[in-house]
Fold:
Amino acid sequence: MAVRSLVLLFVSLLAGCSGGSPDAGHYQPDYNRGLTLYNAQCGSCHEDGRLNAPSIHDQEEWDPGTLSRPGVMRQHLAMNWLSAVRSAPLSEYDEADVLFYLQQELGKAESSY
Structure:
């Protein structure tokens, strides 16, 4: 019974630290914060296409749905694809900021053709 209580406490603490969902009507993703998170978590693979990751410098390598798919960064985290060890859970705000940064950068790459 004590183990079950501890597990429930741990799960509720994790849920409380998740950061919640960005409200599409009120949350404006932050480009600079997305850049910082991208550099810390994603850049080691996506800067040069390492491990078959689509390069941020080549818009055509990206699946268009990836940047609008909720949870894509948490999937990367579950697969141990994010480079830095996080001391806090990856929030949906973190993901929104990184995906916003990527959308902006890939848009720049597309317009440079």
